[in-house]
Amino acid sequence: MKPTLRSLALVSALIASGIAQAVEIDTDHLFAFNKGTDLGEPGEKEILAGFESRLGRIAGHYSALTGSLSFQYTPVRDFQFEVEGAGTSHSIDNVPGMDDRHSAAFSGMSLVASYRLLDRENSGLGLSLTAAPFWTRVDDDSGAPVNGYGAEFTLALDKELVENRLVAVFNVHYEPGVAQSRIDESWAHENVFGLSGGLMARLGDNLFGGMEARYLRRYETLGFSDFAGQAFYLGPTVSIAVSKQAWLTAGWNAQVAGRAAGEQGALDLINFSRHEIRLFVGTTF
Fold first, then answer.
1. Which uninterrupted H or E stretch holds 121?
2. Residues 191, 192, 195, 196, CA torsion sign
3. Which of 60, 85, 144, 262 is most buried, with most CB under 10 Å away?
4. Residues 116, 37: contact at Cβ < 8 Å?
5. 10-residue stretch averages of pLDDT, the chain, 285 residues long
């Protein structure tokens, strides 16, 4: 082979190798509002920082910001656990049903355990179950001081619709919880049930972009009686592989439809916020 042809062949092989590495899809943190089924390799550890902002209610001024820091570890194939601590700040003025509040506090901790039932690489379809018991000392919505306990349960499925280019995810979500006020010692029970999904497409070697949608229903019991309201969210998500070990994912969801029980209107801004913004950064080691 002539030197020029050999050089071209070498360059082509290097480019092909780089593309092959770039197009590998990992859904572990690809979505902002949905959970994928991919887990770390056995022995892999990860530090993850997350930020979530919730903005807008039926009237007045409302903003809530939650920041979290977690450690994630994959001890064996198909099983992963995570320990997380979080802090929350609220800025609330003239919102019906809520006290005016401007405060920030450590809000609680959670333990997340995920088990993968089907590996997408081998089965064509990924399937996983996640359970996340939590303890909280601040009400997420109102910022009121509480002692709260509950758990998040998620069934996740994902599938590559176009190999190494387009991936879809679907989640079923159930989050029951109880809380006792630290002011008047009254008890509250609720649960949020949701169906959600998303599509992410490769926009560049290390860049993904797409859309996520969620349908949420809130009940004022641990079961499915005493319906409080429902909301449908839609918005874009972007995920960037900063390096082989580090990544960043950001998403925005806006409530585009909804209805509170016994209320009129096209949105439920009594039980749910108008906008939700999430940002996650993480690194593996």
1. helix 120-123
2. negative
3. 144
4. yes
5. 42 38 79 97 97 98 98 98 98 97 97 97 96 97 97 98 96 98 96 98 96 98 96 98 94 98 95 98 96
Strand partners, 277: 53, 252
Q: Look up residue 5 and give its two tokens.
A: 């042809």
Residue 108, H or E segment: strand 101-118
- Which pLDDT value is given to residue 24? 81
Beta bridge partners of 8: none
Q: Structural domains in the chain?
A: 3-284 (2.40.128.130)
Both tokens of 73, joined, read 């570890």
Rounded to an integer, what distance in angstroms lies between the CA atom of residue 204 and that of residue 14? 17
Report the candidate in 110, 176, 100 with the shortest Cα–Cα distance to residue 144: 100
Q: Which residues contact 8 (CB under 8 A, 6 or more apart)?
A: none
For residue range 203-257, list pLDDT tens digits in order.
Answer: 999 999 999 999 999 999 999 999 999 999 999 999 999 998 999 999 999 999 9
- How far, in Å, CA of 8 to CA of 15, rounded? 10
- The beta-carbon contacts of 54-57 under 8 Å, at least 24 apart in sequence, are 54/273, 54/275, 54/276, 55/273, 55/274, 55/275, 55/276, 55/277, 56/269, 56/273, 56/274, 56/275, 57/95, 57/96, 57/98, 57/269, 57/270, 57/273, 57/274
Decide: 221 and 189 in contact? Cβ < 8 Å. yes
